[in-house]
Predict the structure of Acetolactate synthase.
Amino acid sequence: MVFRQRKSQRFFMDMSAAELKRAASAPPQHPHEEPNGSEILVRSLQAEGVRFLWGYPGGAVLYIYDALYKQDTIEHVLVRHEQAAIHAADGYARATGEVGVALVTSGPGVTNAVTGIATAYMDSIPMVIITGQVPTAAIGLDAFQECDTVGITRPIVKHNFLVKDVRDLALTLKKAFHIARSGRPGPVVVDIPKDVSLSRTAFQYPATVEMRSYNPVRKGHGGQIRKAVQLLLAAKRPYIYSGGGVILGNASAELRELVDLLGVPCTNTLMGLGAMPGGDPKFLGMLGMHGTYEANMTMQHCDVLLAVGARFDDRVIGNPKHFASVERKIIHVDIDPSSISKRVKVDIPIVGDVKDVLQELIAQIREARQAPDAQALSAWWGKVNEWRKRDCLAYRNSSEVIKPQYVVEKLWELTRDSDAYITSDVGQHQMWAAQYYRFDEPRRWINSGGLGTMGVGLPYAMGIKLAKPESDVFCITGEGSIQMCIQELSTCLQYRTPVKIISLNNRYLGMVRQWQQLDYGGRYSHSYMDALPDFVKLAEAYGHVGLKIEKPGDVEGALREAIALKDRTVFLDVRTDPTENVWPMVQAGKGITEMLLGSEDL
Ligand SMILES: Cc1cc2nc3c(=O)[nH]c(=O)nc-3n(C[C@H](O)[C@H](O)[C@H](O)COP(=O)(O)OP(=O)(O)OC[C@H]3O[C@@H](n4cnc5c(N)ncnc54)[C@H](O)[C@@H]3O)c2cc1C
Ligand SMILES: Cc1ncc(C[n+]2csc(CCOP(=O)(O)OP(=O)(O)O)c2C)c(N)n1
Ligand SMILES: [Mg+2]
């Protein structure tokens, strides 16, 4: 087997930002020549401190690939499908907080990337996607591999650029990185025609960038924060609902401090898990469609709700009329003014960065030298703990058939004290991972919430493992989802990114089957997975280890074996109960307290 000799991981990790910047300003190979657009692109990426790039070549980006060949600070990972390039860079961004960067060619390269870009957009992930374009003179002429990249991606990016002149390239890239990572983060596409990637000009990377029309607010309005403090201190039944914005804004420490300071219950959305420690007594678990009974009941019955970096998604509030049917005051902190009062009317809007705003809130509460009414708070906790007693995540384990919840619980037990990252795909397995793996830290739970894209799990894991070579990276998936990007097993081998795939194989598109059982009269239309491949052989064919697990008693041993095989990608084909459902569940159209807690509620 021939591997491309990969530079040692350490080499990249050891380079300081200053060294990367020095590489960017190194003189060109032919000093009499100005750099071409491709070299300018590479140097701009170096100036931004980019270490990894996921991509796939093609005609329109060959000059760029030539420039990549001549440098050695950025490691390019050749994926097997462009969708996976975007997902891998997206996973890297989610786990590290840095901008994820991907490179694809024009036409089919771009259209293959669309799902990845939309996935990142829906979850506000900072990314820069470089796309090749046909030469400027050929644009609009139905040229070979031409598509309107700017038009196709416009609704699924934070911003996009078509660079028509090489003299604009460095500044455009500077803007792209700035836009991607500032304010509400998001993906930015930079479309570079082939002639631009070849034309030459002087290179200077701008140190700063000013955009008159783009100035995201960081500091919250002092008066609004004061009002929020008064409301929180006067509350009898306060509740904090935090989301992906707290993770994206690196504000978990502030959230934890505020929760402790006020002594109030707190919930996280699917995207916010890890912001509060999973085992903290003030944490009520995830809320929403598959949230805990206590998290949803508390949402509906609180009198003051502080929403931080969360966008009142339909999966969270259920039927909006039911949600609005009770009186409560809502304080909403969000960096994007368009998120505020979008789905739910709020009383105190605070536009600003969650870290800045929470710090200010905490400072003002401390200054006020007041605490919420202790008696009222204790009565409120009494109610919350009553709801908690329902123990809604309890499930009946079995010694005959493997329960998916048991697999996730075991994984949590075996990895809770280690430096583990968990990715997932989309479906029932995703919900069980969210419910039964208790995330204690932010950026450890990596999944697609907004677009709900099957196929992300493996590329996410692969992207994270490259950045975190010492950490164990697990992908909890289903036999349906894993097949959407399974070709990336090949990339994992080439770049030596050993990940552990735990496929909860129920032989069904389980989440679809569950909806068909509950809402479509048990008519299981095309949700059964017949003719599945032999995943063990498939893993082996890709050069990895495959294990099939069929008995509950073998689960722990197999997980231990996979973890012990530190340097190997291991595919665990875990045959789980095909009839198991995700509980609790709020069915479509129902209010968030109208939950089904188990099959006995049917
Ligand atoms: C099968 C399936 C089932 C699901 N079930 C559930 C469920 O039961 N419960 C659930 O919660 N979700 C569920 N989801 C996910 C759901 O679809 C949404 O993705 C999720 O609820 C949105 O989370 P969020 O509100 O935290 O918003 P995010 O999409 O994470 O948005 C973050 C918000 O924070 C803001 N923000 C970003 N950065 C900052 C900053 N620095 N400062 C301030 N604000 C900032 C943004 O402007 C945005 O408004 C499910 C998804 C799938 C696929
Ligand atoms: C790309 C894509 N296509 C379709 C869907 C709709 N969908 C959501 S969950 C699901 C089933 C997933 O099956 P599997 O991966 O086996 O997971 P399970 O629900 O069985 O755990 C489907 C088809 C989706 N989310 N993404
Ligand atoms: Mg399945």
Summary: The first helix runs from residue 9 to 14. The pocket of flavin-adenine dinucleotide (ligand 1) is lined by residues 123-124, 184, 243-245, 248-249, 269-272, 286-291, 309-311, 313, 315-316, 334-336, 339, 353-354, 426, 430-431, 449-450, 452, 511 (CB under 6 Å).
